[in-house]
């Protein structure tokens, strides 16, 4: 089976960027050559990671990066999205760690020499533990430490980076990490979710100021994840429930950036649950961005519930990926068109999209037709949105290779390349070969 799009699709143009994505903690390993981070601590806490694993070795990318660059090149992609480990490049006293910086400059130089553009995210969840010990994202000072890190690393990397994203998915850092505690640092207090989210968004704005100054020619922005919310029925109460959920999980992160305001539901919160907003914060958060990164995997369905206002329904008979997420590509088009109609957006990049599947390696091959179908359907959905007038300039498959899937450990495989964690052998899956073939047949 092949990937194909209508012959007049704008995604066939070489102007459209195709890439693959990873993140530092999920692939790098080499934990001894960086500062400990909140995910090291979380992994060392009993019962937090389903298979009891950690990120100490992961895909050993710090050792194997040259092979991995060859692998990326062999896929024929235009760009590689990676994240920088804060604790690999900044020492505890705030100075640059030259060894860590060299790791990234060598990697980037090698990618650039092969014509592969670098899309770098500065924060993909691996907060140095010593900063968490001072309150982490609940402490306003962390936003300023992030600005300082962004300032130093963007100067050090120079013009190697084509595009900087400040944060990846602040929803996950704040809600999963501080409000319900299923991600690091594992705190579970309702008010913490909104308070940490505000400091993350402030960090984004403060970092944008220095990145735009240091790298005015790079494409600079933020990556947000969205799980579009649908009502379980046509009943007004269910529709209202899905709207509240949407404000809480999705609009909460984009509206401050695009419109300088939190959604109206903030007015319904108890005072103690509101974020600590200081004068000028919303202006810092809402300064212009050059691009918006969107990560999409699935949708969620809600019904009204008197206790919590909304309650998620498990769509039992719906097709799902191996991580239990419903496969519903129409929600991707709906999301993109609705964001386009709601906000005045900069160009969009799909910075993550992909599926965990129960892969089997047989005779050195992984025949992951289920993942391939997922990609086909979701590329169609992106194409539909473009046809409806949404400006989308790129698409990154999540992920280049199987890796540490956070609280699921190594049990869930999202790669288009299979990783044997015993031998570290990489095998391009059928979906990866199809992605490569699709990319290679684009017009010059
Ligand atoms: O693996 C994660 C990634 O780190 C962030 N976005 C979602 C992916 C799949 O869960």
UniProtKB/TrEMBL annotation:
Keywords of the record: Carbohydrate metabolism, Cellulose degradation, Glycosidase, Hydrolase, Polysaccharide degradation
Hydrolase keyword on record: yes
GO terms of molecular function: beta-glucosidase activity
Pfam (any one): Glyco_hydro_1
Superkingdom field: Bacteria
Active site per UniProt: 352 (nucleophile)
PROSITE patterns with a match to the protein in the record: GLYCOSYL_HYDROL_F1_1 (PS00572), GLYCOSYL_HYDROL_F1_2 (PS00653)
Substrates-to-products reaction catalysed: Hydrolysis of terminal, non-reducing beta-D-glucosyl residues with release of beta-D-glucose
SUPFAM superfamilies for the chain: (Trans)glycosidases (SSF51445)
InterPro entries for the chain: GH, GH_1_N_CS, Glyco_hydro_1, Glyco_hydro_1_AS, Glyco_hydro_1_beta-glucosidase
Residue ranges crossing the lipid bilayer per the database entry: none
Listed EC numbers: 3.2.1.21
Family: Belongs to the glycosyl hydrolase 1 family.
Record-linked PANTHER family: GLYCOSYL HYDROLASE (PTHR10353), LP05116P (PTHR10353:SF36)
UniProt protein name: Beta-glucosidase
Organism field: Shewanella electrodiphila
């Amino acid at each position: 089976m092949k990937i194909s799009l209508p012959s007049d699709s704008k995604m066939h143009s070489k102007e459209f960027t195709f890439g693959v994505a990873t993140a530092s903690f999920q692939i790098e390993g080499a934990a001894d050559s960086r500062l400990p981070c909140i995910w090291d601590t979380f992994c060392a806490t009993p019962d937090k990671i389903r298979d009891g694993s950690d990120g100490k070795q992961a895909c050993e990318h710090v050792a194997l990066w040259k092979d991995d660059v060859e692998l990326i090149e062999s896929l024929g992609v235009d760009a590689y999205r990676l994240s920088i480990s804060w604790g690999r490049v900044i020492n505890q006293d705030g100075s640059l760690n030259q060894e860590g910086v060299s790791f990234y400059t060598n990697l980037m130089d090698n990618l650039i020499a092969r014509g592969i553009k670098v899309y770098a995210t500065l924060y993909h969840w691996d907060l140095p533990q010593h900063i968490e010990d001072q309150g982490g994202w609940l402490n306003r000072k962390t936003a300023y430490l992030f600005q300082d890190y962004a300032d130093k690393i963007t100067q050090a990397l120079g013009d190697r980076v084509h595009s900087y994203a400040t944060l990846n998915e602040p929803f996950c850092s704040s809600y999963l990490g501080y409000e319900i505690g299923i991600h690091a640092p594992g705190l579970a207090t309702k008010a913490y979710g909104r308070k940490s989210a505000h400091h993350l968004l402030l960090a984004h704005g403060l970092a944008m100021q220095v990145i735009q100054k240091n790298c005015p020619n790079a494409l600079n922005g933020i990556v947000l994840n969205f799980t579009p919310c649908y009502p379980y029925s046509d009943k007004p109460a269910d529709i209202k429930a899905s709207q509240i959920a949407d404000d809480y999980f999705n609009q909460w992160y984009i509206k401050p950036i695009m419109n300088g305001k939190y959604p109206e539901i903030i007015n319904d919160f108890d005072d103690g649950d509101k974020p600590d907003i200081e004068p000028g914060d919303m202006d810092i958060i809402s300064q212009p961005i050059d691009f918006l990164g969107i990560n999409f995997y699935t949708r969620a369905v809600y019904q009204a519930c008197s206790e919590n206002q909304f309650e998620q329904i498990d769509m039992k008979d719906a097709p799902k990926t191996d991580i239990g997420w419903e496969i519903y590509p129409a929600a991707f088009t709906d999301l993109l068109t609705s964001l386009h109609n709601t906000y005045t957006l900069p160009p969009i990049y799909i910075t993550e999209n992909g599926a965990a599947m129960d892969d089997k390696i047989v005779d050195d091959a992984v025949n992951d037709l289920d993942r391939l179908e997922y990609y086909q359907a979701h590329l169609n959905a992106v194409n539909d949105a473009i046809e409806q007038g949404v400006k989308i300039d790129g698409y990154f498959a999540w992920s280049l290779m199987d890796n540490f899937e956070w609280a699921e450990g190594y049990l869930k495989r999202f790669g288009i390349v299979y990783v044997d964690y015993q031998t570290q052998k990489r095998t391009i899956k059928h979906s990866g070969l199809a992605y490569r073939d699709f990319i290679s047949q684009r017009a010059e």
